[in-house]
Amino acid sequence: MAACLFPLSQALRSYHGEEACTSFVDYAQLDAFTSEAFRGNPAAVCLLPIARSVEWMQIVAAEFSAPMTAFLVKRSKTKDTAGNGQVVMDVNSFVGEMSNPHTNSEEKASEFDVRFFTPTAEVDLCGHATLASAYLMFKSGLAPGPHVFFHTLKATLKVNMVMGSDGNNEWQDQVELCLPFMDATPISIDMDSIFPQTLQRCQVMSSHKSAWDRVILELPSATEVETLKPCFEEINACRFRGGLIVTGKGSSGSPFDFVSRYFAPQFGIPEDPVCGTAHCSLAPLWAAKLGKQKLLAYQASQRGGVLELSVDNDAKCVLLRGAAVIVTAGVLLS
């Protein structure tokens, strides 16, 4: 499957030889939290044969101009030369696996170091780019499944294939990732004075401040969330440097428990199409409000996206389940 996804990469390596192509970087762009192309949240995923500098990764992320670009380097369970048992990166892991994706063991093929970049900044964690990365690894055969581990700057994330039930053990073309709660604390601030043009005197039912300095405003209805006209200049200038999330209860007759939108011009993303980490705060809030642990959410951006959520209060985590679509694949030559 890897050869099918990266035919140009295969042709270049066959022509020039593996040793001459160690600087080539295979990449794919996917749409996450959707089963339709050109919907959901785009993410570029770059498969690095060797670790690259932060400066290079930021330039590439700006070039892709996707909401998020993930850079992956496969880990090898090889002890370092000092013999202290640390995990080190396998320098040519992706290069060799493009030629023969089934040479490495499942253990070696399913652990990756990952860094996330918006067009303007690096971030510690990204839900939709993690989902996209896992989907690409499973679809290409670079991670045989049924799970893959991503080592971020802050945590190790396990992502699972979603398998069928009732004896159907086939992959359902969905993945599930577990992310920690991002606590949201109630705040009492006059939001009309902070976001006068955005809210246009819309009633705010509740206000919370969540992790990463995001503010969450609950509006009276899903309709008011969907029709909100944000003023990006005032959001960019506001005291909450993580941006603004607006949310509301799903409409009567709708399959969705709640809807939301997320604006983050501070990170070069005026409106995030579908944000996984935002739902690490939203899911616990709505689970408590609605008295249910399993939720279906819709992020009402122009592209739109669906998230299946399960809240585990004991483990303090949210399970996010979603699909993805591979839209393009190619190779970076420099």
TrEMBL record:
Q: Which cellular component, as a GO term, is one annotated location?
A: cytoplasm
List the Gene Ontology MF annotations in alphabetical order. Answer: isomerase activity
Q: Where are the transmembrane segments?
A: none
Protein name in the entry: Uncharacterized protein
Where does this protein come from, organism-wise? Answer: Physcomitrium patens
Q: Provide the taxonomic classification.
A: Eukaryota, Viridiplantae, Streptophyta, Embryophyta, Bryophyta
In the UniProt record, the gene name given for this protein reads LOC112274487
